Amino acid sequence: MDPIIAIATTILTQIQQPTLAFLIGGMVLAALGSRLEVPEPVYKLIVLLLLLKVGMGAGIAVRKADLLALAVPALGAALAGILIVLLGRLVLLRQPGVSEMDGMATAGLFGAVSASTLAAGMAMLDGAGMAYEGFIGALYPFMDIAALLTAILLARMSAERKAARSVMPQGGVATMTMGQGGGTGHGDIMREILVDTLKSPAISALLLGLGLGLLARPEAVYASFYEPLFRGLLSLLMLVMGMEAWSRLADLRKVAHVYVIYGLAAPLVHGLIGFGIGLAAHHLTGFSAGGAVLMAVMAASSSDISGPPTLRAALPEANPSAYVGTSTGLGTPVAILSIPLWIALAEALIGA
Amino acid sequence: MDPIIAIATTILTQIQQPTLAFLIGGMVLAALGSRLEVPEPVYKLIVLLLLLKVGMGAGIAVRKADLLALAVPALGAALAGILIVLLGRLVLLRQPGVSEMDGMATAGLFGAVSASTLAAGMAMLDGAGMAYEGFIGALYPFMDIAALLTAILLARMSAERKAARSVMPQGGVATMTMGQGGGTGHGDIMREILVDTLKSPAISALLLGLGLGLLARPEAVYASFYEPLFRGLLSLLMLVMGMEAWSRLADLRKVAHVYVIYGLAAPLVHGLIGFGIGLAAHHLTGFSAGGAVLMAVMAASSSDISGPPTLRAALPEANPSAYVGTSTGLGTPVAILSIPLWIALAEALIGA
Amino acid sequence: MDPIIAIATTILTQIQQPTLAFLIGGMVLAALGSRLEVPEPVYKLIVLLLLLKVGMGAGIAVRKADLLALAVPALGAALAGILIVLLGRLVLLRQPGVSEMDGMATAGLFGAVSASTLAAGMAMLDGAGMAYEGFIGALYPFMDIAALLTAILLARMSAERKAARSVMPQGGVATMTMGQGGGTGHGDIMREILVDTLKSPAISALLLGLGLGLLARPEAVYASFYEPLFRGLLSLLMLVMGMEAWSRLADLRKVAHVYVIYGLAAPLVHGLIGFGIGLAAHHLTGFSAGGAVLMAVMAASSSDISGPPTLRAALPEANPSAYVGTSTGLGTPVAILSIPLWIALAEALIGA
Description:
The structure is a homotrimer. By secondary structure, the first copy, chain A, is mainly α. Helix content of chain A is 77%, strand content 0%.
């Protein structure tokens, strides 16, 4: 019974964290019919600041890393992010009743990375005396952005296909909706969706932040403004998402079990994928045992920071009670509890 | 002449404090016809953040207090808040020319508590070597919220009655305005107003913050975001209220003397009420002499923090030049100057 | 070749500073067709906070200065600001293709002061062991506000004249646009424009901040809120201005050489004006050699802080790629590099 108590305690602690507490608070307000609202311009400001910050932090971390040593693990991290999303699509969209948007947003969030879970992993490795590379923090944007972009692209492509199919009977001019004449192929549509995604406010802000972090020297304004405001703005975003989630909770009733099972099992499967990639990097380039553990921790984690604002802005049709609920409520506790497992695996297969 | 100079100095210092200085600045801008404006969505954000912060701070304080020892003084504090508002209603609304909304808002603000006046009281007790309970900070939300809710409820009930009366002659369907058919009694209307008040954005945000502070662990985001932004956002709110107050200052010309007398006398009367309740708690539960002094200080003080945003959002018809001017310009200086009086009373009646 | 490398390095460092990096980032986003936007209410909030902060900081600095010793140098500083703008008007508006609004905004920005260039000057004087008055920081608002007000007044007066001329043929009722009957003279129109400028949101906020800094005690809220938020809000403003600048960059193609020459030469000419005024103050009142150097540094510098938000709000027709580009991209590096020149001049003409 001990592990169940441990899991219950971790879930309770997780619920009391501001992220989930504000989400639940927003749901309670909506349930009670409160007239509280966060005005649209304020919401846009919050998303802009959050994504600029996430991008800038990632850009600064990559700029300060040793790019040569970073190359192979970074490719591996991006690969892990993409694989997790593709796997999530395979598993979740096959379940009857799971909407395409909700499924892809959930897979994207589980592919993206939680910085705090990663920090917990580093702390445990320090405690266990297992060394890891200094550039690990710079790996996280590769997995994070690869997973989010893949999920958004796939979701929007399938929405486009669906729209095309529903328009077809009325004259076959489906591709017109993308602003092109007839006769465009599959590749063209995909390129258009990619360009359109990159121009969306959320991804633009994320990439702008990344570029500024990489090429400029925004450290001072990052430390004095974006970093201190971050947690607070995130709490407001969670409030908005909670209010919205409540009004759409009924949609999930029939498929709740799918998300519960996914939230509990996915972190373990994803961690194995990450660990496998870390192991391959170990044999290829001498990537450390601790590095492989942290690759597993990143893959097992699901994003509580970069993911929700990006997905909320880029896939507004997706239901936050599905993806944020599954990820923050179940995925994150399981990911944290599974860290010792990856350390044990590394000790067995690589040696400390 | 010395006390008059002391009062004048305190008033001058008070006017130079950001709270009142921004209020006056807003009035000057409006008087000069400036086109400066604070956009409505920004105003809503400010109120949301301020009230979340006030609620969260109160919730955290109550959560950390010893609830058993807190019970009797907390009831006493709530009682003091309600009594002060009822007394204010009796006194202010009887004056010809004082509008119902302005009178109730002023009474509410004088019933609510100033955290900085309370801090001044604690500092003076420390200086005088008089002990008090550690949970005193957790008493303040009870008096504060009880007073504000009572004032808002009473003001809205009487507005409802007035609206009903003015509709009556045209067919007696007054209660229809509350969305109910004929035949609803007094209690129903009161319940509806209470529910409606709780659903209002201001009270929702205050109660959400309270709930988060009590049940979750928002300390980190509170300290890194809500607390540092607080004074600054309040200064912006004061600017808005000052601009608004100017355009309505003329309404007050005929009744200014009422507010001046109330602002000077009320803190002393309210302090006596608070001291009496503290004395009763002393005899009932051994509440300390210092505790009784601080109960008097809280009752004598009028809110400069939680009150203005709550009242501005919940009673938009009330004129801020009446309630903020009376409270911050007169009530607070008198409350601060009267602290030694309560210490002397406690020494005489309870013993240090 | 050394000085060219030094200039190139300074320009590169300057481009990587958040101010210019966010401006360029905004231009890139606009060039790529991003749908990112900063909502209008948020933009208004940013300008309000920035200008309140600039005004308040200046007011606090003046309040803390010794007003008697300040008088002559302050008059000199204001004179320098006005002379620079008049000179800029003479030079820039004579160039074919330079729009009136762009030319006046650029002249205003070069008349206004960069606090960071001033700080660099103080650091170099400290290094050279050359003494200067403690109140120098309080001189800067005099030059800054005099230059900005002069530029805005002149730009709006000429816009008014142009509008009048274009209306004339249709019946000679030009002055009606200012809300007056026929027969108003030149002085009346100027007074109306002055009053109208003072009532504009930007100048109102600046003057309100100045008044609060001078007369109230906003130090606590200034240090806890306005100061920490400043650089971050400025980065957002630069983003907005960059996006806007891109869409209007084509306007500048034909006159780019004018701005390049002005941006490189003006700081040296302006520094000489400032040094001359400092020298006069030295002979009149014993103003120190270091003070004369810093007067030259202030005059040579162009505003990166107070100027852009003020001009953007007060002269929305002016093209930010002209004035911010010229000032931050060229004027500021030249101003910083020319500091040793003023120190050498002071040593030669005054003696350390």
